[in-house]
Amino acid sequence: MSALSERISIHTGDITRLAVDAIVNAANSSLLGGGGVDGAIHRAAGPELEFECRMLNGCKVGEAKLTRGYKLPARYIIHTVGPVWQGGGKGESALLASCYRRSLEIAAAKDCKTVAFPAISTGIYRYPRNEAADTAVGTASDFLQQNALPETVVFCCFDDQTAELYRRAVARLEER
Ligand code: ADP
Fold first, then answer.
1. Which pick of 12, 67, 134, 176 has the fewest CB atoms within 10 Å?
2. Which ligand 1 atom is at minimum distance from the Cα of 26?
3. Average pLDDT over the chain, rounded to an integer
4. Which atom belonging to ligand 1 lies closest to the Cα atom of 127?
5. Residue 120 belongs to a domain with what CATH number?
6. Among the options 38, 111, 134, 160, which is catalytic?
7. Among 1, 11, 22, 7, which Cα is nearest to 107's?
8. How many domains does the chain contain in total?
């Protein structure tokens, strides 16, 4: 298996544009669409996505569910529900790690080679970006070390500052 740094890639841009096997959606527990990246994914995938989501009966915080990608270049969407930041003492970090792990498990079960994640919980849910980046990179790297699939995890950041936080998080991990 290739080095960790070769299996993690950091991209700046709109996740709905990525032609990967699966993109992850930072959804809310209703799975019926919302603001931020969730709204962008529903708009880009088209109305059939909401129809499939309605049949899933929602999703718990820290869990994940799969749908087709519809009009997206990505084949699948993995919808996960991140924790709302409440100061850090309510198990937010374990729940956020669970979002990444469960999404990666589903991606591996569907033979996905490449999976792209947004910065889950760091928008409307107010999770501090730096801590969230550490949890995202740490959880993904643990999973990659133990699993052949996905081959590559893409962290799709909406802006350069967030991408820089991810680059530093990867560098910290490689120094260990
Ligand atoms: P949450 O409710 O989990 O906080 P948000 O959608 O509000 O989810 O924000 C999560 C992250 O996704 C934020 O860092 C935001 O900047 C980013 N984001 C918003 N739209 C997109 C997009 N189209 N592609 C990638 N990232 C996005």
1. 176
2. 3
3. 96
4. 4
5. 3.40.220.10
6. 38
7. 22
8. 1
Residue 84: predicted pLDDT: 98
- Residue 8 CA to ligand 1 center (angstroms) comes to 19
Q: What's the CA-to-centroid distance between 35 and ligand 1, angstroms?
A: 8
Is residue 134 annotated as part of the catalytic site, yes or no?
A: no
Domain that holds residue 86: 3-175
How close is the Cα of 1 to the center of ligand 1, in Å?
31
Q: Is the CB of 61 under 6 A from ligand 1?
A: no
> Cβ atoms within 10 A of the Cβ of 160, count?
9
DSSP letters spanning 97-140? HHHHHHHHHHHHHTT-SEEEE--TTSSTT---HHHHHHHHHHHH
Reported pTM: 0.98
pLDDT tens digits for 93-125? Answer: 999 999 999 999 999 999 999 999 999 999 999
For residue 33, how many other CB atoms are within 10 A of its CB?
17
Residue 18 CB partners (closer than 8 Å, separation 6+): 11, 73, 74, 116, 154, 156
Chain centroid to Cα 112, Å, comes to 14
CB distance 82 to ligand 1 below 6 Å: yes
